[in-house]
Design a protein that fits this description.
The chain contains 15 helices and 11 strands.
Length: 365
C-alpha cells in the first residue's frame, strides 16, 4: 500500500491541523491577514480572501460612512469571507459595529484594548463572530467569559503597537489553557514551518501582516515596499520610552529619521513639563499624538524618512513583491514540506510555479 493511501498527503495533515480555524473562518486556509492601517484596504483584503485566506479590513480612524464604503468595495472584489478590525478606543465604536452588522460582516476583530461588554453583546446579538486580542492568559480567560468567539495572541515580534511578551512564550502560556474557543497566533510568522509549529501546539490558525505588505495588490507606496524588501529583522525595533511618568506603548517599526525624532520630541515635552509649561495630561497626549498621520505619510505618500515604517521582525523574510495568492501558496508549500519531512507524508502535486516576481529593490521610487 502506498504512503499516500496509508497516511494521506502532507496537505491532508495540514488541513487536519487547522480544521478548527478553517471552519471558524469559513476559508480554505486558516490564515488571517493582519489589519494594517492604510495597508489593509479593499484591494489587499479581497486578494487574501480570494487566495484562500481570510482578509481583515483595518477600520483605524475611519468614519462610519468611510467604513461602509470600504466594506462595499471589498465585497465588490470578492465573494469569499472577510472580516473588519475595529479599534476599541474609537469614539464611535458602537456605530462602527452597527455598520458591520448592517453590511453583513460575519467576523469582527476588536483590537487596541479590552473591548466593552456592550459592544461584544451588540455584535453577537447581531449574528457576528467576535475575535479579540489576548496579551496574557488572565485576559484570555476573561475574554472567553465575556463571550468572545475566538482569540488572537500576538507577540512582541509583530509590527505596530506591541506588548512585552514573545509569541513563542504566549503560545506556551495560552494554547494549552484555552480550549473553549479557537486561538490564532500572530507575531513574527513569515514561513510555513512556523505555521505548522504553532498548529501542533494547539493553535487553530495564524495571523500574518508584514508578509503581505509587499503583495502586488497592496496599495503601499513603492518606497514603502522597497524599505521592507531591503530590511532585515534587526531593523524592526520597538520605540523607546524616555520618562516613566509618560508611558509609551512601544511601536515596532523600521528605524529612520522619524523614530529618532520621536526620542527628541519626548525629551522636549518632558522638559516643558518640568518647567511647568504643560500639565501631565496634555504632555502625555502630545507624545501619543506624535505619530498621527506618520503612517499615512510613509504608506501612501512614500515619505520613508519621516513617516512611520511599522513592520514586524518577519520583515527579513520579505524579499520581493509577489501576488497575494503566490505568498499564500508559498506558505502552504513550506508547511507541507515540513510535515512531509517530519511524518513521511507524501506531497500532493503542485501547480507549476509562477515566473519571477517583480523585485522592487532596485526600482526607481
Amino acid at each position: 500500500m502506498s504512503t499516500t493511501t496509508t497516511i494521506g498527503t502532507a496537505r491532508d495533515k495540514l488541513d487536519a491541523l487547522w480544521t478548527r480555524g478553517r471552519d471558524f473562518l469559513g476559508t480554505e486556509l486558516a490564515v488571517m491577514g493582519g489589519a494594517m492601517t492604510w495597508v489593509s484596504d479593499a484591494g489587499l483584503v479581497a486578494a487574501i480572501s480570494n487566495g484562500g485566506g481570510f482578509g481583515v479590513l483595518a477600520c483605524g480612524a475611519m468614519t462610519p460612512e468611510m467604513l461602509a464604503q470600504e466594506i462595499d468595495a471589498t465585497r465588490a472584489l470578492t465573494a469569499k469571507p472577510f472580516g473588519v478590525n475595529l479599534i476599541t478606543m474609537h469614539p464611535q465604536l458602537d456605530t462602527l459595529a452597527a455598520v458591520c452588522l448592517d453590511h453583513g460582516v460575519h467576523h469582527v476583530v476588536l483590537a487596541g484594548g479590552l473591548p466593552p461588554a456592550p459592544v461584544i453583546k451588540q455584535l453577537k446579538d447581531g449574528g457576528a463572530k467576535v475575535v479579540c486580542f489576548a496579551p496574557a492568559l488572565v485576559l484570555a480567560k476573561k475574554l472567553v467569559r465575556m463571550g468572545v468567539d475566538a482569540l488572537v495572541i500576538e507577540g512582541m515580534e509583530a509590527g505596530g503597537h506591541i506588548g512585552p511578551v514573545a509569541t513563542s512564550v504566549l503560545a506556551q502560556e495560552i494554547l494549552p489553557e484555552i480550549r473553549d474557543v479557537p486561538v490564532f497566533v500572530a507575531g513574527g510568522i513569515g514561513r510555513g514551518e512556523a505555521i505548522v509549529a504553532y498548529l501542533e501546539l494547539g493553535a487553530a490558525g495564524v495571523q500574518l501582516g508584514t508578509r503581505f505588505v509587499c503583495a502586488t495588490e497592496s496599495r503601499a507606496h513603492p518606497n514603502f515596499k522597497r524599505a521592507f524588501i531591503r530590511a532585515s529583522a534587526r531593523d524592526a525595533m520597538p520605540s523607546a520610552q524616555l520618562d516613566s511618568r509618560f508611558p509609551v506603548i512601544p511601536v515596532r517599526a523600521l528605524q529612520n529619521e522619524g523614530t529618532r525624532r520621536f526620542m527628541d520630541f519626548q525629551r522636549e515635552v518632558v522638559e516643558r513639563f518640568n518647567r511647568g509649561e504643560v500639565d501631565q495630561k496634555d504632555a502625555q497626549l502630545e507624545i501619543e499624538h506624535f505619530w498621527a498621520g506618520a503612517l499615512r505619510r510613509a504608506v501612501i505618500d512614500g515619505d520613508v524618512e519621516n513617516g512611520s515604517l511599522m513592520a514586524g521582525q518577519s520583515v527579513g523574510m520579505v524579499t520581493r513583491e509577489q501576488p497575494t495568492a503566490e505568498i499564500l501558496a508559498e506558505l502552504v508549500a513550506q508547511a507541507e514540506d515540513a510535515l512531509a519531512g517530519r511524518y513521511g507524508h507524501a506531497k500532493a502535486p503542485r501547480a507549476k510555479e509562477a515566473g519571477p516576481a517583480l523585485a522592487l529593490a532596485g526600482a526607481a521610487g
